[in-house]
Structure formats: C-alpha cells, structure tokens
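Bug report (template v2)

What were you trying to do?
Predict the complex of my protein with alpha-D-glucopyranose.

What happened?
Run completed; filing so the output is reviewed.

Input:
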Amino acid sequence: MQRKWWQGAVVYQIYPRSFCDANGDGVGDLAGIIGKLDYLETLGVDAIWLSPVYRSPMDDNGYDISDYQDIAAEFGTLAQMETLIAEAGRRGIRIVMDLVVNHTSDEHPWFVDAKASKDSPYRDFYIWRQPGPDGGPPDDQRSYFGGSAWEYDAASGEYYFHLFSRRQPDLDWENPAVHEAVHRMMNWWLDKGIGGFRMDVIDLIGKEVDKQITADGPCLHGLLRQMHEATLAGRDVVTVGETWSATPEGARLYSDPARRELSMVFSFEHVTQTWDAEHGKWRSRPFELVAFKRVVSRWQAALAEAGWNSLFWSNHDLPRAVSKYGDEGRFRVESAKALATVLHGLRGTPYVYQGEEIGLVNPRFDSIDDYRDIETLNLYRERIAAGETHEAMMAGIRANGRDNARTPMPWDASEHGGFGKAAPWIRPNPDYAEVNVAAALADPDSVFHHYRRLIRLRKDEEALVLGDYRPLLDEHPEVFAYLRTLGGRRLAVVGNLSPRDVELALPAELESARVRCLIAHYDAPQSLSGRLALRPYEAFIVELAPPP
Ligand code: GLC
Ligand code: CA
C-alpha cells in the first residue's frame, strides 16, 4: 500500500476558546487562529485538529452543538471558517474538524422539535424511555459528568438519555435517519475542503441502551464502515476516532485500511495508567515508566502489520504533559524536550496540543471558583456531597482536571499573556511572563525550537515514519529506548525520563562505534559503546552505523 500523507504528518490541536482572542472579548476566536497561522507554519505542522467551533450554548465549551453547519458567534462566522481553511491550505496545513455526533446540544433544532411533541419526526433522533417501575429513571446508568444518564421530561412523561451533561442528549444511532443526517453534514464539510475529522467519543455510537452497553456496541464497526462509504470513500482525508474503550486489538479493527473505517484512533491506556483503579482520574497515581513502556510497546506491536497509531501526551481533556510525566520545576525545559523526543520517535502520527510546544505546565488554582470545566465542577459537587474532602478533590483536579490544559495560550509577556485585550474567560497560568511564545521563539534552545526540529526530522527520515519498532531496556525504570529500522537503516531513540543522572550498560543492539546524531538537546553523541551516561531528561535520536 502506498503511504498516506497523514502517516508522515504531525497534527496540532487547537482549543479555540483558549488559543487567541482577536476581538478582545476574553474568548479565543477564528480571527485569532488565522492570525497565528504563520506561527504554526514555522512550527512545521501539517494539520490542525480544531476542537469544536460550531454554534453552541457552550455548556461543554462547544462539545454541545446546536448547529453543525454554522459557527458560534463568539468564535466568528462561516466566512471566517472558509478563510481559515483557505489560509491554512496556502501554508500546507489542513483543517481537521471535530465531529461530535454521539450527542447534540439540547438547543439543536432536532432536539427542540423532538421535545416539543412525541409525534415530531425528530423524536426518534434521540433516546426516550418510560420511567422505571418506581416512577424514577428507567435504570441506574450514570452520566460521565455526574448524576443519572436519564433526564426527565415532564411534558411527555418520558426520560431522555445523555451520557454527558443533561444539555447533551445522545443521538439514537439505531435510527437510519440519524445516519443520513450526519453523513449529509459530513459531506457538506468535506466539500468545503477540510482535511478530515477527529471523531468525538465515537466508540459510544454503537450503544444498546436497554442492555446497558455503551462503549463498543455490537453495531459500532458496521456504523463506521457505512459512514466511511457514505462520506470518506474516495477522499484523501484523515480520520481519528476518540475511543477510550479501545484495546490494541480493537484499534486494529478501526484502523486496518482494508476494513475501511478510520485512519487511526486515540487510545488512552497510557493515560489511565496514572489514574487510581477505583477512584479514576480524581485520584492520581504516579507515572511509572516500566508499566508505561509496556503499554506503548503493546500498542506499537499490535498495529505493526495493519493499522496505525496516534501518539500524544496531552489534549484539551488531560493535564499538561510536563506536569504529568516530566518535571514542572527545575527540569521543565529538559523534560518537555525529552518527552517530545521519545514520543515523536514512535511509529504513528504525533499530535501536539497547543502550548505543549513551549512546555506549558498545569496552573495551580487555589479556589474551586477558578475552575470552569463542567466535568470538574459537577464531580466536585457530587464527590464532596458523597463525603470526599475538599483537599483530596482539589488534589485530583490539580493533577487530572480538564482545565489544566485550557488556560489561555501565552503569546508574550504583556498583560493576559498577549492572549487578548480583555481578561480571559479562565485565569492564565501565573508564569506567563517567562513561559510564552515570544520568549520561546527568541531562544534557539527553547522547547519550541526542539519541537520544530523534531517535526522537521519526521519529514526527512522515512525510517521515523515507517520503520519497525523494537523496544529495548524494557525493565529499566528511568530510560525509554527503542530502535526504528527501515531497509538497512537503524535509528535509536533514547531518553532518560528522570531528573537524575543515569548510567547503564549499553544493550548490544545499541553498540555503534560511530553514530550520526539526528537530534539531541545535550551534547550530541558521537558513538555508543560500553557504558552510557545520561544527564537528567537527556534524550536523543541517532542513526547507528550499518551492521558490518
Ligand atoms: C470528548 C471530548 C470532551 C467532551 C466529551 C463530550 O471526550 O474530548 O471534551 O466533553 O467528549 O463531547
Ligand atoms: Ca474573541
């Protein structure tokens, strides 16, 4: 099979609300993004995954859509969206739209109509059930954002189903009319020249509510194949499904090109490694490299022959990579570079979440009132009511809450970090005077320039794109090391992910009297032999000499 553009691509995720506010109302917007395209071109990314910009009452910051074919007024206009697609295209950057079709907003005309009458043609776009025997909800399924997944509608005496907030009613994917409406909308966007879709919680659309099956339902893959034929077939676009439930074997089903479903999925096994088995994300577990490497290696192996991996540390729902996996204090810069190096060396498509390229860290808000995220606020309320302490909950929120990634992008040292003229909708990181884009651009040793070089390297080294992956030093608690091989070429990726000096006996596979250094952020290695000494968060990629 010929290699696809998105296999060699690096994707940059923009969370529009927090990226750049051009009109000074405190909220990021499309004009702000258009104004920063030159910056993204300098970084060298091939595509932008744009978190939702559609019309929305913003109960979940745009993941609650009331019109799929229009833009939220606070973000801009459809004309600006077209300008963004064209202006990005001129710079070789494609726009990947967020497709949120597990649910709509309760203000979507479909739902408004469905709710108005049981006879509405849209009633069956959603999932309605009679009350349970006791008059309460039909069953005890829970919403991810807290509380019951069922909301009572007094007018009809029925409950509707919502896996997220009550203002995000789930679409009924057992109804073919829903498929048609969604496919039509997708084609409308594709015809505008977008580069593809990131598909929000797509593993939930095959749900069978009455059997309490939500993720990975029996119809899921059939729905995706049908969607592919109706919209994606014959178009050279990328699709990435958000699938919290995916196993490596499942990911292969989604992404094996012969099955005609998706290009790849986002998997989260590496993320949930740092969550408590019982309390989930609200109780954080330390990052353990050996377990982490095992997860990564399993995913790399499972998709080696067919299918494709996505590679990411962070997104708009997760904490900042440096805070979670690196060192946000003394080694902020070094750990950001090391994490980037070992991730971008893997086989798959790397995603960079806005601000990651300058090594942003989690904010540390003292008051719950400084947080804005619906999940954080709902779960705080629910868990405190259930007896959790304020301190424990705040610790969980600071470690894993979604607002960690949603503070305004700091562009320079001016007021509000140059995000916009007005106070932003959420407090900025307190360190914006030092950690900002202007400072990063001016410093050749910055995290930004390291990302720029890494992204460039992927363009120059086909072995980084298509090479086989072979893990090394599996049991080493501090060092992540692996080989990528293609044809006769062997690249070694090595990173010390600890704040300590590390010395180790070199595995035989890494012995090389002479090496060509492709990227390093301490001294460039000239050879690898005998013992290897690594500084705190030192990482590099080198080409080993061909075997004799
Ligand atoms: C996905 C999104 C998240 C959103 C949820 C509901 O997980 O990434 O931000 O809240 O879906 O749409
Ligand atoms: Ca604005």
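What did the reviewer find?
The chain has a mean pLDDT of 97. The chain has 16 helices and 22 strands.
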